[in-house]
User: What shape does this take?
Amino acid sequence: MKVLIIDDEEDTRSIASMSLGLLGGAEVVEAADGQAGIEMAATEQPDVIILDLLMPGMDGKETFRGLKDNPETENIPVIFLTVKGMFDGFDALKSMGALAVMTKPFDPVLLTSQITDILEARYTSTS
Assistant: This one.
């Protein structure tokens, strides 16, 4: 599984990357902002994108729209990651096409299995 993490917080990217890569065996690529994330998604073609909601400049919603507007990235599943209690519009994100919304802080030991479960549920419900 290849995962793209788009998050402006280096600590979050590092912990998620180590968790997914070392513990989960995933190939992980990272982007520190929305624009770089959109470009990286097009070139890397990850299996899933973990996208921070609250970022300076291009926030998660704008980044998500950019991903969905690009034919090269429109079908890549996106899971939002945000601080618990910081955003009450989780249902709106899902209605926009987000696969799921996970909260920070996340458990690094469980992160890979949580993402795998979300992806498996998606493929089970669409078949």
Summary: The chain has a mean pLDDT of 90. Residues 2-126 form a domain with the Rossmann fold fold (CATH 3.40.50.2300). Residues 48 and 62 are 17 Å apart (CA to CA). The first strand starts at residue 2 and ends at 6.
